[in-house]
Records
---
Amino acid sequence: MDRRFVLLVEDSADDVELTLRALSRSDILVEVVVVHDGVEALDFIFGTGPYAGRNLNVMPTVVFLDLKLPRVNGFEVLQRIRADERTKLLPVVILTSSNEERDLIRSYELGANSYVCKPVDYIQFSEAIRQLGLYWLFLNESPMRENK
C-alpha cells in the first residue's frame, strides 16, 4: 500500500491549526501526523518512545519541520534524519518563521530539501501550504515509497 501522509513538526498550536485548515480548504485530503517537539518527531520517525512498535516501513511522504522547537531543535532533528541510512532520503521541508540567512544556509548544509518562510498573512500562508502539499504529496517522486 502506498500510504501518503505528512509529518508536521510544529510547536505552535496556532500554526498547526492554520496548516491543517489550509490543507483541508485546498481539498488536499491527506493524513497529517502532528508532533510538537523534536524529541517527539524523532520518536515517531525512528519508532521509539510512545511510537515503539510503529511500522517503520511506512514513512511520511514529507516532513514539514519547524526549526525553533522545544527539547530538540529542528536542525538536530534534520541532522539525525540525514545520519540514519533508513531515513537519509526522507523529504524534509523546513517550514519556519525564520528568514535569517544563517538558518537557511545551515538547513541546506544539513540536507533540507526545501526552505519555506511562513508568510504572516493567512491567505499567503494558505497558498504556500497548498502548493507545498500538491508538490510534495502528488508531483514529487520520492525514493522513500513503501516496498510493496
---
Amino acid sequence: MNDWNRLRETFRQIWGYDEFRYPQGEIVKTILQKRDALIVLPTGGGKSICFQLPALLQDGVTLVVSPLVALMENQVTELRDRNLPAATLHSDRSRSQKKAVLNALEHQKLRLLYLSPETLLSRQVWQILAQPHIDINGIILDEAHCLVQWGDTFRPAYRRLGAVRSTLLKNRPPKTRIPVAAFTATADSTAQQTIREVLKLRQPQQFLQNPYRPNLSLHLRHTCTPRNRKQQLLKFLKQHPQESGIIYARTRRDCETLAYWLQQQGFATAAYHAGLGSIDRRQLEAQWLNGQLQFVVCTSAFGMGINKPNVRWVLHYQVPALLSEYLQEVGRAGRDGKPAIAVSIVSEPTGWLDPSDKQRQQFFRDRETAQLRRAKQLAKQLPKSGNLDAVKTEYKDAEIALSLLHSRGQLTWRDPFHYKILDSTPNPDSNTDAIREMQRYLRSRRCRWMFLLEAFGFGEEAKPCGKCDRCRR
C-alpha cells in the first residue's frame, strides 16, 4: 500500500469518510512533508482533521496550541472516544491528571497534546519539551485569529510563540524539522501577515478559502431605545420557537443580566462566559448540545470548536468590535448546510436615543488606550533586555507591556523567556483600522456578504447573495 492509500485508509477507518474535502488532502500532505502552513478555512470546513490525521500517522507528539479549555476538551474527547492517544493540559485539570499527562508526554506515549499558550510556556511543561529525546513532529496553532485579537493585552503569551520552534531546535540534531501550521476560519490580509510574522513561518504553504456560506443569511436591525432592543429580541425568539441558537453579548455582566431577564420571560437559557467554573461550563455546553437549553447567552468564549451542526440562528444583542470576531460568531450557525440566519441588533446610526453601543465601544477604546499608555511608561523603566519572570515580579503588567512593544516592532524575543527592547520607530496600530472596518460594515448599504468577502481579500469572488437584508431591499 502506498503512502496516499495508507493515508486515505486511516482517514476512512477513524473518521468514516471515503474522500477528503478540498483542500483537506493537500493540507495533510503539506504537514506530513514537514512544511509550514497558513490555513484559512470557513467554520465547519473540517480543519481539525487536517492536523489530527498527520499526527496519528507519525511518531512523536504534535503540540496543538488552543485558546479555550472547551475547545481542547471537545476535540480530545472525540479522539479518546476513538481510542486515540491524545490529551489536554490546562488549569482546570487536577494535580493527578496533570501528572499523568506529563508522564505520558515524557515517555512519548502521546500523539496529540492540546494546551494553551500559557501552559506550553509554563516551567513544568517546557522542561520536558526542551529535552532532546522528546520527538516533536509539529506545532499547530488552532484558532490562530486569537493571536491577533487577544495577543497584545488579553493573552500576551501568544506573542512569545514565534520563539518556541527555534529554541526547541537548539537542543536537537542539526537536520531536525519542526513544522508550524496556523489554522483559522477568519483572517484578512493584515491578520495573515501578523500570524506569519509572529509565528516566524518559513515560506508557508497557504490555503485560503473565502468564508461565504450560501445557506447563511445576514441581517441588521436598528433600535432606537434599550427597551426596543429587548422587544426586538423577544419578537425574534417568538419567530424561531424550538430552534437552537446563540445570543452574543460583549461582557460577563451583560450576559448574566440578559439571561436572567430571558429566564423570567420563560425561556430555557443560561449565561456562559469565561468567569464560570470548569464544571459549570461543561454542564452548560452539554445542556445546549442535547437540547435542554434552546440557546445560550454568551461572550465570545462560547461556540469556538463546539460542534453543533443544527444551530439555526445567531443573534448579536451587542456586536463585536472587529469584523473577524463577527464572522467567527455568525459562522456558528448552519454548519449542517441547511438554511440559517444571523441577526445583529444595533443602535440607529446617530446613537442619540440609544447611546449604549457607542458607550460600550468607547469603554473598550479607553481601556486599550490606558493599557498602551501604561505600557509606554513601563517600557521606560524596564531593563533593555532581561528575563520575563524576573521583570514580572518587579513590575506589574510587565508581560502586557512587553507584548505591546512586540506588536509595535519595538521588541524581540530571544527565546520564549528572554526579551530585548529595540531602538526603533513603532509600527502603526492596525487595530484602529479594524474597528473602523466593522463600523463601515454596519453602515454599508451594499450586500452584506459582498462587503465581507472584499474585506477579507476575496473581492474577485464576491457577488450579491440575494438573501441578506440589503439584497432583499
